[in-house]
Write a structure and sequence with these properties.
By secondary structure, the protein is an alpha/beta fold. It has one domain: 3-Layer(aba) Sandwich (Rossmann fold). It is built from six helices and seven strands. Strands 3-2-4-5-1-6-7 form a seven-stranded mixed β-sheet, with helices on both faces. Strand 2, helix 2 and strand 3 form a beta-alpha-beta unit. Helix 3 packs across helix 5 and helix 5 runs parallel beside helix 6. The chain is globular and about 45 Å long. About 35% of the residues are buried. Pathway: Cofactor biosynthesis; adenosylcobalamin biosynthesis; adenosylcobalamin from cob(II)yrinate a,c-diamide: step 5/7; Cofactor biosynthesis; adenosylcobalamin biosynthesis; adenosylcobalamin from cob(II)yrinate a,c-diamide: step 6/7.
């Protein structure tokens, strides 16, 4: 079962996701994607560790390459909590050990370069184009568009791998699209890819919940809009 949990900063989405994992039962594995760059990051990590203390989570640091992670047999009948998608995307999108994708526009056979992910990627969203084919604001240069698409597919392959490796997968992501601010192009590039990932995962998810001021609002569930937990 795949459950996507979203919400703004400080919304309570992390606590809600952790409680979902405990209710689903079985051993719980926490996949931490955040890299610590400064003191602020360190404080955030300490806060989340304190939140999980005593709840029975085992923690695994996994900032990149989800598809290469070998989930221990002990957790395959339990629940994996991935926190969070926004940090994972930062790490994957600007990693230096993968060469830039070749320049050139994405064509209809782009996905044939990658193993099947099980997700339908939205090329137009990642490329910064509107559904009617018109160019959106801040259209990517061809090289960035190719790299962004490769990043999205690589992450989705990892999500599919995790979903196939455990009974329940809970993913925490961020709702950071509603402030109405026009950021620099690199930030807009990040927002476009995150939005595409959120849509791709939500489409395949069994349940989607947005947490607002600590209140879980069901968006998608097994029975219409009824929530799982």
């Amino acid at each position: 079962m795949l459950h996507l949990v979203t919400g703004g900063s400080g919304s309570g989405k992390s606590a809600y996701a952790e409680n979902c994992c405990l209710k689903y039962g079985g051993p719980c594995l926490y996949l931490a994607t955040m890299k610590i760059w400064d003191e602020e990051d360190r404080k955030r990590v300490e806060k989340h560790r304190a939140m999980r203390e005593g709840k029975g989570f085992d923690t695994c640091e996994c900032p990149v390459d989800l598809e290469k992670l070998d989930i221990p047999e002990h957790f395959r009948s339990g629940t994996v909590l991935l926190e969070c998608m926004s940090n994972l995307l930062v790490n994957e999108l600007w990693r230096e050990d993968i060469p830039d994708a070749s320049a050139g526009s994405m064509d209809e056979t782009a996905l044939e370069k990658h193993p099947e992910t099980g997700f339908a990627t939205d090329r137009q969203a990642v490329n910064g184009k509107k559904k009617d084919g018109q160019t959106g604001d801040g259209e990517h240069i061809a090289g960035n568009a190719a790299r962004d698409h490769d990043t999205e597919v690589r992450i989705l392959r990892g999500i599919r791998h995790l979903a196939d490796s455990c009974r329940h997968l809970v993913i925490v992501t961020d709702e950071i699209f509603s402030d109405g601010i026009r950021y620099d192009e690199e930030s807009m590039r990040y927002l476009r890819v995150l939005a595409a990932l959120n849509r791709d995962i939500a489409e395949q998810a069994d349940a989607v919940t947005e947490v607002v001021f600590g209140i879980p609002v069901p968006v998608k569930g097994k029975n219409g809009r009824k929530e799982y937990v």
